[in-house]
Amino acid sequence: MRSQVKEIAPVISSIVNSINQIPFEQQKSEIEKEFPDLLVEKPKKEEREGLPPLEGAQQGNVITRFPPEPNGYPHIGHAKAAIIDEEYAKMYGGKLILRFDDTNPEAERLEYYAAIKVGLDWLGVKYDRVKNTSDDIELLYKKCLELINGGFAYLCTCKQETVSANRREMKACKCSLGKLEQNLERWEKMFSKYKQGEAIVRFRGDMKSENTVMRDPVMCRIIEAKHPILSDRYRVWPSYDFSVAIEDSIDGVTHAFRTKEYELRNELYYTILDALKMRKPKVIEFSRLGFEGMPVSKRILRPLIEECKVSGYDDPRLPTLEALKRRGITPEAIRKFVLSLGFTKADTLAPFDTLESLNRKIIDSDSIRLHMVKNPVKIRILGMPHTITMPNHPTKDIGTRQITLDENLYIESEDIKNLKIGDELRFMGLGNVQITKTEPLEGNYIGDELKAQIPKVQWVVQKDAQKIKILIPSQLFIGEVFNEKSLEEIDVFVESHYSQLKEGKEIQFVRFGYCRKDSVLQAIYTHK
RNA sequence: GCUCCUGUGGUGUAGUCCGGUUAAGCAUACUGCCCUCUCAAGGCAGUGAUCCCGGGUUCAAAUCCCGGCGGGAGCACCA
């Protein structure tokens, strides 16, 4: 039918035409007689709010978990995962577990356990239980032994290169032929005699599998570094693949979310649990979240910090939670944003615009409006009032402030371009000024009657103007290259009232944009 | 290279499982108007997608099937 649309179209339009000749009332009554169901209003499909329903989820029976490795500061990617984990637990009246996945003592540090908690706290993500994978290390050993005893795992003492070459070439390892006694003996030796790199426990997968993850993956290995919590009490550490499966299962997790790059590991996850006859959670993956030109990976960030190209993990150009906070992005905005991205596996380069827009709407109503002048020029105005009261917000009642005037003010040089003697300017909140002289600038105060047409400018009193710096962050990377101009600094004058604001307070500098007070001397540009 | 995942307006998504009632909803961006002592917020309207491409099944496909192509990820004794 579709392919014949050209021939059919004229026929349709002639029919429609002839029907349109019939009066509307008659059309209606005929339809009512012949096809009454056509007139019944179809119920509109309901627009779904928030995340899609979870497969196999039962009200009151859902347990999710957020399993960060304490190896760095939390960033927007952690936020996405944690918020999704929490939202689903909430949606089904379930529970959220925060589990520090600390099975690689080489990478983990105590300060990061705390930093992650601080980040979640700030985000408003509440968990019902906290634990560490390392709490269960003895249990993990037990499960590992069970795998060995059941013939599902064996001890391998090959060199690392041999192991990876065999995996690449799909060749079985000679160690996998070893008898149980040999495995048990080697297992014992992992705790005493062997050194790091000399022995590993391998799951008996399938060296011929298309899925490289299944080619006899590592379950336990020796790491001699000091663990942030357990110090040097242990040297045999379970691998991620082994520990998540076991932990999720024993923690009662029903739905385990992880990012897409783990997708190939699902087969292993389920196979391990099958081998141990343990309950299997449902693993579901979602896409990683990143912003354009705002890398999240420590591999890229660390050198930047070491070379002092960024000031630290709270540099306002970074997508860490600390940085976002410092920049003035609110946790509410982050949550809305994450939820707006949906639960999808499609690769996402998130629109920072949307985050800013959501944030703006949240902070607008309690951002105090203040005057700020960049590229200042002096102006002397005769006949001004001595003091005025300015509202802190144009529509919301968030107080007023008194300003003591004198005749010397600053205004922005951009605002006096093409200004001629006799022109009028509206000094916002103050009144109208007629220019009497241009170099130096002078004018007469001519009353505060509101006139629609004259340009409105913001101004600052010279004698108590506060000089501050505003940091304006922009994209850290353009393509692959570091953007040398990613942090603009401008020196500006602001009203003295600035000094009375608490640090962290969000301000809207009139005709400029939203900024967050970082210190007495510095504010950070949030967004327009 | 091999394997897996993914592909809806400028951007992010809803709808895809159970094909029609929507030639596609929402947000953001953009444009215009209203409001306004801000280039903000708020209100209203509008622009913008033949749903990656090509075939097939069907009376009917964004939705099902096959084949391409684009993008991402994995191929660690890291998580």
Write up this protein.
This protein has 528 residues and is of the alpha/beta class. Helices cover 29% and strands 25% of the residues. It has 13 helices and 29 strands. The chain has a 7-stranded mixed beta sheet with strand order 12-27-28-29-23-26-13. The chain has a 7-stranded mixed beta sheet with strand order 21-18-19-20-14-17-22, with no helix packed on it. Residues 1-9 and 36-45 have low confidence and may be disordered. The chain binds one RNA strand of 79 nucleotides through helix 6, strand 5, strand 6, helix 8 and strand 11.
Give a topology summary.
Blueprint: H1 5-21, H2 24-34, E1 63-66, H3 76-91, E2 95-100, H4 110-123, E3 129-132, H5 137-149, E4 153-156, H6 160-169, H7 180-190, E5 200-203, E6 218-222, E7 236-238, H8 240-250, E8 255-259, H9 266-275, E9 282-286, E10 289-291, H10 298-306, H11 321-327, H12 331-340, E11 348-350, H13 352-363, E12 368-370, E13 372-374, E14 376-382, E15 387-391, E16 400-404, E17 408-412, E18 424-427, E19 431-437, E20 441-445, E21 456-457, E22 460-461, E23 466-473, E24 477-478, E25 481-482, E26 487-494, E27 506-509, E28 513-519, E29 522-527
Parallel strand pairs: 1-2, 2-3, 8-9, 10-11, 12-27, 14-20, 18-21, 23-29
Antiparallel strand pairs: 4-5, 5-6, 6-7, 13-26, 14-17, 15-16, 17-22, 18-19, 19-20, 23-26, 24-25, 27-28, 28-29
The chain binds one RNA strand of 79 nucleotides through α6, β5, β6, α8 and β11.
